Amino acid sequence: MKYRIASIKGDGIGPEIVTQAQKVLNKTAEKFGHEFEFVELLMGGCSIDVNGVPLTDETVEEAGKCDAVLMGSIGGNTATSPWYRLEPSKRPEAGLLGIRKALKLFANLRPAYLYPELKDACPLKEEVAARGFDMMMIRELTGGLYFGERYTKEIDGVMTAVDTLTYNENEIRRIAVKGFDIAMKRRKKVTLVDKANVLDSSRLWRKVTDEVAKDYPEVEYGVMLVDNCAMQLVKDPAQFDVVLTENMFGDILSDEASMITGSIGMLPSASLNETKFGLYEPSGGSAPDIAGKNIANPIATILSAAMMLRYSFDLDKEADAIENAVRQVLKEGYRTIDLAKPGEDQVKCDRMGDLIAERI
Ligand code: IPM
Ligand code: MG
């Protein structure tokens, strides 16, 4: 089969890590008799430099015409980059939020899995790491605080900033259904994470998700407050299978979940709409401090490419091949700088891409 993949390399380490994922995809195509055509598109800071805006209509339109989007990362150093002297709606992050909204990518899947080979890199207590964990964080991506009305103005002589958090029942239901559907293919457990002891929006999340849960009698369903979840993730992450939550909580908890896997450089993600279309990107950021040094960990991006094959193209065997190749290099002891223990040999970004591609 032939697939067209929009490639948004973006800023910072984005170009380096996406190039490695393309290398692995090309090897997979060769091995399994497919063809992947990459359509290079600009978004984020690199788009600001060329077009004056972080996201153009052309990028949205071209991306939408492809079969899926593979993305690196966007943004720069918020303290020093000139991009952050622009007004907020013109900054790199606005491009990412804009494309999520424009392509209706409401379901963000962030798996956090502790590879047995990386137990040493896990910052948790040994007995917690020994139990391992394998969870799927499902974050609502096009609603809530990120997309509510916001403004800063003087009210009664006092400078005041307002951000609004809105969810309607339809937005909650469609992501809850996604969460339960995914749980059915996993260990059949869903934990809804909210702040229902304080927020009205969370109380609606509970009501709607309780209703959806009734359609999935096989799934063990529970609720947890977000502050408790932050604690449970470091105390007993093995308890989680699918974690279902709103946009802002999911942003924060997914970084926590990724860190306990050993490195944020390991965590892939998929952002899906109602169809098979999706945008696939590593959960980590653009890491401007290490950009261009060829030391970034490309594994999260390579695993994101595997998710693309699985979720958008239904190429399960091919996705398995990529995931197995990643497991193999880890088993053989290859480590990028973020994973290496002091004194251990470090593999560069492009070499890690080669090693994984060779094992497809
Ligand atoms: C993420 C990132 C983005 C988000 C930023 C860059 C806007 O942190 O994908 O988690 O908050 O969604
Ligand atoms: Mg984040």
Task: Explain what you see.
It is a single chain. This protein is an alpha/beta fold. The protein has helices spanning 14-32, 45-51, 57-65, 92-102, 126-131, 169-184, 200-214, 226-235, 247-259, 299-311, 316-331, 349-358, and strands spanning 2-10, 35-40, 68-73, 107-113, 134-140, 150-155, 158-163, 189-194, 220-225, 242-245, 270-272, 278-280. The strands form two sheets. A ten-stranded mixed β-sheet has the order 2-1-3-12-11-4-5-10-8-9, with helices on both faces. The chain has a two-stranded antiparallel ribbon with strand order 6-7. It starts with a strand and ends with a helix. It binds 3-isopropylmalic acid and magnesium ion. Residues 75, 93, 96, 251 line the site of 3-isopropylmalic acid (IPM).
Name the CATH homologous superfamily of the largest domain. Isopropylmalate Dehydrogenase
Structural class: alpha/beta
Mean pLDDT: 96
Task: Give the low-confidence spans.
Answer: none
What hetero molecules are in the model?
A: 3-isopropylmalic acid, magnesium ion
Count of helices? 12
Number of domains: 2
